[in-house]
């Protein structure tokens, strides 16, 4: 156990580090080894300066060979877990920074290389029955070295879990730094630590809901028989699932609480307030808080992979000096992830947390504009253009958060709106693939580019665009939106907060428009000419009939006069 006082480059297969730092430290450790294995790193003990915040003191872990690599996780004074992190390659870096407070900070870290596909038998799994048992690998024989097992226990709703270790023997040390078992109140190992134990004991744990997680971690030496554990289910009294509703959008957060639920906690609508007390709810049959994301005391946190907006509703009695009511906080979180908005609302009741989730989306649109001022969108559909005409496209994010950037990552063209086999790349991974494409620097909520109109060589009248849009935190200088063109080999270098796609079109050439106009004009002229022809034909037929009748009358008269003449001038023959 040991290592340089401030930072190092580490190449061993496994190593334990006992780190001691004072004020104003800024130390980086790089773990790197030429192998096809990945790294597992655990901080089994950490002690920061009292009352320090994550902004002033922390351990930041990066998934790669430097601090420019993607952020894998962060450990600070309020971390409610035993952090165990895993790299995606054979390199990993962690950076420890401390503030100016005079205090000796202590950390214990251990890492080892391993192959993810190898795992001991009976190491972790899903337990879903109302009760059950599980043991450490090889129990009652000694557990293997370099073990990391995770058991997820989930029972029926409206219940909680009681966990009893009937036999327990792990390596003993003061801070449980080497081998330990950690128990979490929930289905994750990121927060909600109930306890961490080692040595010889028979510990008991109890969850607040129907989910619990148990972790076993061992290092490379001093293995013992491990543990045998049993869990049972206990029904939960009272309102387990809060009657609440959380809705998140690009612009706002909306929290709805029923009056009956507040009454079951012993409160009414006058006893609650947001982080910013000046933001009041609307009272109807329910209590409704609705406010823009960047207001009313909402905090924003960027963990390198997602962006989370958090606000807290506090319930406390008014007009009293003392109280015997339970302390309640309603914590609402809108977490913007890759392709959706994950909404999380949970209630803390004397340190008991209950969760509900829902799903929403960012509001992103894309339009063509008539010039590079991007002031007048084109509403015409189809959009008729000249061949080689410069077209201006803009992706717009509709959000009240001013600290977001929009980046056009990929844009392809196709003659069909379903984007079948025939496609053409305009932009790919932020790189311009067409010679006429020009992308504009990210500007707040807008991603812009221009290109010259073209046509597909086969007889297709239309062109559609399908674009992948990334959204990043503008305060993160290393976000994907600031990196521009990234080749396929380097795509994992930086992260983005959220991704969506949009389709715009069709675009058609103006010669198709003229053909359509000429066809329409011809059809209209034919329609106007048809009644004239019909009228002309009617007059001609009438004239012919009239002339025929006149000829017939004249013929009859001539015949009559001829008969009379023959009768007058006929000679009488003598008898």
Can you walk me through this structure?
- It holds the Pfam family Zona_pellucida.
- Keywords: Disulfide bond, Glycoprotein, Membrane, Repeat, Signal, Transmembrane, Transmembrane helix.
- This is CUZD1 protein.
- The chain is mainly β.
- The chain is elongated, with a radius of gyration of 40 Å.
- The protein contains 2 helices and 38 strands.
- It is 11% helix and 42% strand.
- The longest helix has 59 residues.
- Strand 24 and strand 25 form a beta hairpin.
- The C terminus is likely disordered.
Provide a short characterization of the protein structure.
This is CUZD1 protein. This protein is mainly β.
Structural class by secondary-structure content: mainly beta
* Low-confidence runs of at least 5 consecutive residues: 338-344, 346-360, 514-534, 562-575
Radius of gyration, CA atoms, in whole angstroms: 40 Å
Number of strands: 38
Oligomer state equals single chain
The CATH class designation of the largest domain is: Mainly Beta
CATH architecture of the largest domain: Sandwich
Largest sheet: 6 strands, antiparallel
Mean pLDDT: 78
Distance between the termini: 174 Å
Total domains: 4
Shape: elongated
